[in-house]
Design a protein that fits this description.
- The structure is a homodimer.
- Chain A is α/β, with parallel strands linked by helices.
- Chain A has two domains: about 300 residues, Alpha-Beta Barrel (nicotinate phosphoribosyltransferase); about 170 residues, TIM Barrel.
- Helix content of chain A is about 35%, strand content about 15%.
- Chain A contains 18 helices and 22 strands.
- Chain A has a six-stranded antiparallel β-sheet with strand order 15-14-1-5-3-21.
- Chain A is elongated, with a radius of gyration of 29 Å.
- The N and C termini of chain A lie far apart (about 65 Å).
- The N terminus of chain A is likely disordered.
- At the A-B interface, helix 1, helix 3, helix 6, helix 7 and helix 8 of A face helix 1, helix 3, helix 6, helix 7 and helix 8 of B.
Amino acid sequence: MELKSENGSTEKSSEIPPPTNPMVTPILTDLYQLTMAYAYWKAGKHNERAVFDLFYRKSPFHGEFTVFAGLEECIRFIANFKFTEEHIAFVREALPGTCEEGFLDYLRQLDCSEVEVYAIPEGSIVFPRVPLLRVEGPVGVAQLLETTLVNLVNFASLVATNAARHRIVAGNSKLLLEFGLRRAQGPDGGISASKYCYMGGFDATSNVAAGKLFGIPLKGTHSHAFVSSFMSPDEIVEKSLKSADGSTSCEDFVNLVQTWLNKIQRTKFLTGGFGDTNLSELAAFTSYALAFPDNFLALVDTYDVLRSGIPNFCAVALALRDLGYKAMGIRLDSGDLAYLSCEARKFFQVIEKEFGVPDFGKMSITASNDLNEETLDHLNKQGHQVDAFGIGTYLVTCYAQAALGCVFKLVEINNQPRMKLSEDVSKVSIPCKKQCYRLYGKEGYPLVDLMIGEIEPAPKVGERILCRHPFNESKRAYVVPQRVEELLKCYWRAKMREDMLPLKDIRDRCIRQLEKMRPDHMRRLNPTPYKVSVSAKLYDFIHFLWLNEAPVGELQ
Amino acid sequence: MELKSENGSTEKSSEIPPPTNPMVTPILTDLYQLTMAYAYWKAGKHNERAVFDLFYRKSPFHGEFTVFAGLEECIRFIANFKFTEEHIAFVREALPGTCEEGFLDYLRQLDCSEVEVYAIPEGSIVFPRVPLLRVEGPVGVAQLLETTLVNLVNFASLVATNAARHRIVAGNSKLLLEFGLRRAQGPDGGISASKYCYMGGFDATSNVAAGKLFGIPLKGTHSHAFVSSFMSPDEIVEKSLKSADGSTSCEDFVNLVQTWLNKIQRTKFLTGGFGDTNLSELAAFTSYALAFPDNFLALVDTYDVLRSGIPNFCAVALALRDLGYKAMGIRLDSGDLAYLSCEARKFFQVIEKEFGVPDFGKMSITASNDLNEETLDHLNKQGHQVDAFGIGTYLVTCYAQAALGCVFKLVEINNQPRMKLSEDVSKVSIPCKKQCYRLYGKEGYPLVDLMIGEIEPAPKVGERILCRHPFNESKRAYVVPQRVEELLKCYWRAKMREDMLPLKDIRDRCIRQLEKMRPDHMRRLNPTPYKVSVSAKLYDFIHFLWLNEAPVGELQ
């Protein structure tokens, strides 16, 4: 996935692989992009040079930050942007009325060789209104990119942000597993979620296709169906198990497990007390251990966690230990996870003490079952003994806020700055081709993002800079940056362009940047807004243009 | 897309095309399906005959119904289920520990020729706990289908239901357009949303790829960027326009538009009054009309709807009319849609009267901008003049509830009924291979869905039948059905299997079924729950099995 640009040579698009999902083509777009392309072409405007900004207006989940994701897929789409004859034939059919053949010829030869894309590196922490991508090129083709680019960034950034927020609540010491494929919004809702949750700080996924496509570590055990598919240990035919070092073999592992279960049942120090455990569960655990003696992790809540699942698990784990194997742990998928995890921990500790089994008390406990930021927070407050969280539905569908509102706005055409007005000031776009900077303070934290016009000089370290809110005239502040970071880097077409990094490196960038933010911007409840500003010059220009474009009413 | 089964002949899977999204393969699954398959295989259990039910537990959006969707994609997946060598190689890598080569050989030859799928027809109205699919086959392969089937049904049914709910609020006379691609959860979040919103009762989509894949009607106009890409009518070079019948030609359409604008500006009956309209907008509208004289629909809120957008639109529409063209209408994308649509309607009616233009007052008004069920409801209550709604974000991401909780539960293996217990009674599954019926009352409405054991006799018309709540012993009722509908039909593998219908027919079924429901089940607020029941015999069996499986505690 690492793509190096060769210094000085013109690159071919074939260097960059196509989008991960083969359904991402130039016709994965809104019809109006094609009608507009036709109208631009009819008006002879299609080659006018335009600049579009892709940005969002409000961070999701009542938060004050977003993790920018989806850039690599955008660049793959742009690099391979080409209508096939099949697409062209469909466009001819789809356009209302009859369209001229010349337009179809225009589409036929269209690619992104005249397009330039500057972007904030993927995995960066970003803020409202600052362009994530700046797309410059002939208006005909640049406009045609809108829907697809917005689609590729919107969900990617949303779910990466969601993952990062879960990581912040869970803390760095916990393992976070994404288990959402079945509940995701369609097949690549699942695949994208797995990719971008990993980017946002998760450790692994259950999604095999995502593991294959992106090299994300895979995790998983078994389900309730596996447990209830067994009736009793009698049905296990192949009962022998070799020891871990291969030196010996246990001829009747089923019996060994039963022996341990009897010992556990006689242990008076075990809290609660339990009668007979469920035999179909015992059979399922035994059978699973015979298949994966090295990686035995059992789902313990099919019948009853404390009275059946945990004793059954311990019996199998202790039998495995006799043969030199180390069981991995349990998964809880229902009930009071705080309470059950604490009880399970105590149980393991009693086993450790009673039977002199070092480290048995540290057995890993995974919890799943409709977890989200809030339930993680509650678990933390209640106290729990969970080592790993498996998170599905709420994570991958971004249940708390299912969409991010990225938009793609024309900010300049033919060197003329343009802006979209609106009755709602938050929807007014910031005109002009812009440069964007992040200014850092003395303590190393980012202080403010600053947008300036293309030809304004870059802000300098140690210089006193007036940063203005783009629309609110009373909000402004002087900043003396200790470090200045240019945010927009070239990702498409220039000879010197940024490398596409492996997913793992993008994930590392994300984790590093999250750690670098001032904590009050990142907290879950009532975070402090991060400041996004424009230069004094850009501020003045915005307001000049605004007055110019808005019609003046006549009161009667 | 219509697939007929040939009577009497064994069908080849190649008759059925692969899933729409090529990413849907046997490895689009959770890792634990593969570890379980390995454990089943190791235990020699993989060919035991199992029955799984796919169902959901609670209808979404605080409603009491769901539109079942996704079946065709499930059948395509099943019919083409086959591991490639590339998949096998990855499975070898992905399984924890080392797996035996024999297992990989087993996967190599695996397909769904031994699997049977019964399902409720796609586009049907369905209710909690009733199996949407019943999958029967060797446990090894049936288990491997779980994640993918659930993924394919969950979002499809959720978004089809969301669309149906929007249709109910909007009423049948309004045009409903799905505009959500850019905000959807990834590329095929968008494509699935377009397909299943159409199924749920929408009329068209903006998504070109969905139009091509599924034959859904396409709609779209232009965006704000198109409007702001123009500076003034002076830049329009090609100004001539042929009349609709080709008999004459207007050499300066730009001037004709200007003449009409002047006339409109002098019309004293137009409410409000306005000064100069925005010239870049006028240029954009004129240019768009030159490209699409037959299909002129303008987005009128880039600068100011009443002072600029509507007068500009009317000038262009009247100029087009001089040449025999009929403009289609306007789109409003911001502001107070109820108020603006009423003002626009008045404006059109004044034009009709002042200039003697028949039907100008009926000009179509499309509204968009973050619409959802609730805003549609509010618009209805306020009174509005909107003819068509363009709905995006809230519709396609199912913002009000981003996931449906479909599950896939083992209900029988080796002819032994199985059930999953849970501390939460709503999560307990109903055991046994079941038949499912919908019983209709005198007034033609469905009264209750009834699940019975496989060998119980089917309910008969006119017979008094005791229907019991599966878990609540006090909830039961006698029903004398006037009509009995068998819900589960064979969709895979039997010689006589149901045809897969074209999308349009499935949509018709959905619309018909929605109309057939008793209205109080369908209302938006506090709908009456529809009853889902089991036979007395199945009830008794469930509770016998429950007591049998649950461990008995010992209080100390």
